[in-house]
Amino acid sequence: GAVVSQHPSWVICKSGTSVKIECRSLDFQATTMFWYRQFPKQSLMLMATSNEGSKATYEQGVEKDKFLINHASLTLSTLTVTSAHPEDSSFYICSARDPGQGIYEQYFGPGTRLTVT
Amino acid sequence: GQNIDQPTEMTATEGAIVQINCTYQTSGFNGLFWYQQHAGEAPTFLSYNVLDGLEEKGRFSSFLSRSKGYSYLLLKELQMKDSASYLCVGGNFNKFYFGSGTKLNVKP
Questions:
Q1: How far is A97 from chain B (nearest CA, A)?
Q2: If you write DSSP's letter for every residue of chain B in order, what string do you get?
Q3: What does the pLDDT look like over B10-28, one tens digit per residue?
């Protein structure tokens, strides 16, 4: 149980275009999902907390107009990187909390590697 | 703040025991978690502590002392596949705060 998927696994896009990344909880309902970014040889940095049916909460320094988050249902959250630039190239990972498994534990998706050329 | 410190890199021998320490400075954590991350992959959950003491889970054990802001992850009977980064993570209901990770190299 508690499986989280992401799509796509990797994507290459041109500078100035937008990319959408999907995060799905496959066997549980996630009222809260989290989006992280990880640069090479660095740890995960929380970008935003996505709550179903309400606006996402962004961490300091993360541009909400650039990283659009939509949590339209209890099993799906999307992150759209708008007007992507090469410096946005990173590993994007989502996680979700399964209330049935414990209130603290988060389950991570496999990640999406974004390369902006 | 949520400063979480752990060693950058460690090396150990297959079959041995290794302890990865983590210290933190925060007043907002409800739990201390350990995750394993292989290069290019997402983290996978290993263990967590909400109360002081030792939690054992097969070859992996984790210890927490909240008063000292200290935790460690103990790996026994090391295997080559244990070569990975180990992330110390402080968490509450709303957020996880990640340490920079300890890269463990297991050699034959």
A1: 9
A2: --EEE--SEEEEETT--EEEEEEEE-S--SEEEEEEE-TTS--EEEEEESSSEEEEETTEEEEEETTTTEEEEEE-S--GGG-EEEEEEEE-SS-EEE---EEEEEE-
A3: 999 999 999 999 999 866 7
Q: CB of B92 within 8 Å of any CB in chain A?
A: yes
Which of B30, B35, B101 is nearest residue A104 as measured by Cβ atoms? Answer: B30
* Contact list, A104 vs chain B (CB under 8 Å): 30-31, 33, 48, 50, 91-93
Q: Spell out which residues of chain B touch residue A45, defining contact as CB-CB under 8 Å.
A: 98
Residue B89 in contact with residue B41, Cβ under 8 Å?
A: no
Gap between the Cα atoms of B46 and B89, Å rounded: 11
Please report which confidence band the pLDDT of residue B99 belongs to, taking 50, 70 and 90 as the band edges. confident
- Is pLDDT at A65 greater than 70 in this prediction? yes
As a whole-number percent, the residues of chain B with pLDDT over 90 amount to 66
Q: Is the pLDDT of residue B66 over 50?
A: yes
Place of tokens 């054990």: B61
Q: Are B90 and B49 in contact (CB under 8 A)?
A: no
3-state secondary structure of A93: strand
Length of chain A in terms of residues written: 117
The residues that bridge with B94 in the sheet, in sequence order, are none
Q: What token pair was written down for A6?
A: 């992401």
Q: Which residues of B touch A107 (CB under 8 A)?
A: 45
